[in-house]
Amino acid sequence: MADQPIRVTVWHEHVHEKKNKVVADLYPDGMHAVMKAGIEEYLGSQVKVGTALLEQPEHGLTQEVLDNTDVLTWWGHRAHNEVDDEIVDRVYKRVLEGMGLIVLHSGHYAKIFKKLMGTGCGLKWREAAEKERLWVVNPGHPIVDGLDEYFELEHTEMYGELFDIPTPDELIFISWFEGGEVFRSGCTWTRGKGKVFYFRPGHETFPIYYDKNVRKVLANGVKYVAPRTGSPYSLKAPNIDKPLSPINSTHEVDESLHQH
Amino acid sequence: MADQPIRVTVWHEHVHEKKNKVVADLYPDGMHAVMKAGIEEYLGSQVKVGTALLEQPEHGLTQEVLDNTDVLTWWGHRAHNEVDDEIVDRVYKRVLEGMGLIVLHSGHYAKIFKKLMGTGCGLKWREAAEKERLWVVNPGHPIVDGLDEYFELEHTEMYGELFDIPTPDELIFISWFEGGEVFRSGCTWTRGKGKVFYFRPGHETFPIYYDKNVRKVLANGVKYVAPRTGSPYSLKAPNIDKPLSPINSTHEVDESLHQH
Amino acid sequence: MADQPIRVTVWHEHVHEKKNKVVADLYPDGMHAVMKAGIEEYLGSQVKVGTALLEQPEHGLTQEVLDNTDVLTWWGHRAHNEVDDEIVDRVYKRVLEGMGLIVLHSGHYAKIFKKLMGTGCGLKWREAAEKERLWVVNPGHPIVDGLDEYFELEHTEMYGELFDIPTPDELIFISWFEGGEVFRSGCTWTRGKGKVFYFRPGHETFPIYYDKNVRKVLANGVKYVAPRTGSPYSLKAPNIDKPLSPINSTHEVDESLHQH
Amino acid sequence: MADQPIRVTVWHEHVHEKKNKVVADLYPDGMHAVMKAGIEEYLGSQVKVGTALLEQPEHGLTQEVLDNTDVLTWWGHRAHNEVDDEIVDRVYKRVLEGMGLIVLHSGHYAKIFKKLMGTGCGLKWREAAEKERLWVVNPGHPIVDGLDEYFELEHTEMYGELFDIPTPDELIFISWFEGGEVFRSGCTWTRGKGKVFYFRPGHETFPIYYDKNVRKVLANGVKYVAPRTGSPYSLKAPNIDKPLSPINSTHEVDESLHQH
């Protein structure tokens, strides 16, 4: 592929670490630092990873940062409503233009995810530290490269169906939970030229982002949603006055109508 | 099926008729009147059809009207921005809860359609009164019941790809245009419990809604997107504290974390 | 819809009942009799249900029987290889032409299912009489009409992913199994004009077809896959010598090439 | 990605060249030679391309050749029925296990394509040397990398809908034909671990495989369907006697039933 490294921005709400000792102890430098390390562990010089936080000006997502981001990862939970609508629109536009987006765990309720999905994005949940087993249901997919047919997380928060999303373009993982639920834990969608990958694991009070399988999926995901040149795309609706092929119609056209 | 008639509300912007003599002459009682008649022509006592207009209080879409609507059809063009966001949210919520929605022609840029799709919804266009031929690509689908393998509209506005939509759950029609473009003219998506059907024809300066095939598709569409009882659905994200099956985990759960 | 009842043929291998006392005790008149009763329980005069068995001439699926079948249900396990290829081809052709097909449980390995899917159709399995919980993931779908958000089967054979099928057009149920697996238990596909519905439950040594939810799904499925008139369909590849629109090309065509 | 080149085998029926002077003049070394050159033109050392012909022993597709093929391209027309069923089964198995397959033009009726699709695979056709314009409808897809929003072929055989295929996982091109038809000209499906890409252009009496856009798509396609390691896959249906998680069920299991 390209010789240029994939430019990744790890976006993090960074709220729990400041309020909850369990989280702070697990992630002394913030969850974003561990996600960054996880991606770099597998991709090395294939990526150049930066971070951005809610607390920063423009949430760290200035136009310049986004223009220089190929793949954005998103973790949020408590502070979804504190994300500025203008920044959400900015990210949205970049996704349509081709930037890859990886939405993690409680990011299912992030403004940007709901805006891209067009559905409620709700789900069931339970914090009982139960076991999760993620089954691969798309074994040839690049995102599962190097995985076994399932992997387990010993203690997780449960997310259960109904997960209120549009039919995924690709369903990659289905989770089994000890307490009795199932969940579509790995899904992709195309929006404009951009690819969106939702990946379920990531509860802040468990060491999820230290798990080697989770990190592998994250790294595979970065490579998968990274943009190609593709063919032209525009958010405009262009008028094509001159037909490409001859029109034999003899209908009288009222020129006053030519406005859209 | 059910003995109750399907309750349809035909929503119309109703702007062109007041400003353009061609449109006024074609649709002296408004396009909504002709759409209503078209649906009734094929479905008779199977439907009960009302209309609602932008100019009415709450655009004619009060909570009561929506609560008593099974299928909403939507035609808009010039005045998309005049539709109140609160009404859009109200319609959106009803679609997720199961109300069927049929979006017509220039409604591709309606707020409600963009909100449900999560994409830019742009397209190419040309007003040259050219011929359109709509090919059926899903011959067993209820929406094409009674059609031939294609039908033609002698004079139409052209809509061309790229149509910036998410992958349709079902692709039903592809249009050929005399001037050289193609278009995915009939598409469906599921959003929450609701079905959305986009149908391309409907330019205001041509007698499109008098065409028997267009009317047949409209009627078939009403039946197709009409809601079923289905299984439970909620826009909430419920906590399921009590597991359905026993959890053998021995992990200590910090109760202070139990907040979502 | 039509006033005519849907003509259903319940096809059954009918082998286990003769060899295994448990099955014979559960289904003294054969599983097909109970499936038939289940469909009739919910659909009454909306259906006319017949049965056909492997042991009958042409497996009970003569051309005449198939020509008068709107929906075929298929249960097989031990004797997949005893089904005549000619009969499989006959069923296949009818599905493409619009007959609905419901494939049940171990029918995942039936010749007709593999031929329609184009994949291996394998899965994992275990007979440990464990609990299965089927979660609805498509709450507005006609097939789940009248169900709750999940239903349970106290004792079932387990089927686990990877279920080697093409991406379903619609995913309706995901099963949770006590022993740790998940499964896409309700899926639909379109093939030609026909709809195919695979529904997992149905192990012969448990009273699955007496379960009210299973019967409800079976009845809903019959209504869902029943054919419409639709638009024309042909298994031929017709030559369309005369173009529908004028061709301005000036290329010399070698007439000797006109053979496909 | 991998440092190893993608191993491509270009399979060709190689019949028309021997019977038709037009074809022989266009492709003096056979169409396969030109396809090979086209792939190599864009991918250079990223690929290692071999060819295989119907006329060779085992049609050039020995088990060894297939075991050393990452991507197989397939062109056939007159001699579909001369392809040995055993070879078809061999290719089929390799696709499910992960080998990429690119089916070209009249290959829509090849045994291997029909077996993988599970449908009739028919279409309409006309040889009138008309113009074809292929529109990109998936602008971020790797297969359209480097293309404009459409490309044209001045003289082609027409293929028209209904193209009797299962819903593609991805729809990439829609063709417009001068004579009035449309066609889904670029489609992908997943089968087992393998990716299948159907690409329409390729009529033998026109210089299609010399066209730079066609060659670019072919090269992009090779990269897209090339297999990854992925996660484990098996054509077997394994019994998983030992549950992954404890089963609390108390049901008596009759051991004599444990046979699948």
Automatic annotation (TrEMBL), chains A, B, C, D:
Record-linked SUPFAM superfamilies: Class I glutamine amidotransferase-like
InterPro entries for the chain: Class_I_gatase-like, ThuA-like, Trehalose_catabolism_ThuA_prok
Look up the domain of life of the source: Bacteria
Q: Which Pfam families match?
A: ThuA
> Which stretches of sequence are listed as region Disordered?
236-260
Its recorded name reads ThuA domain-containing protein
The residue ranges of the ThuA-like domain are 7-225
Record field: compositional bias (Basic and acidic residues): 251-260
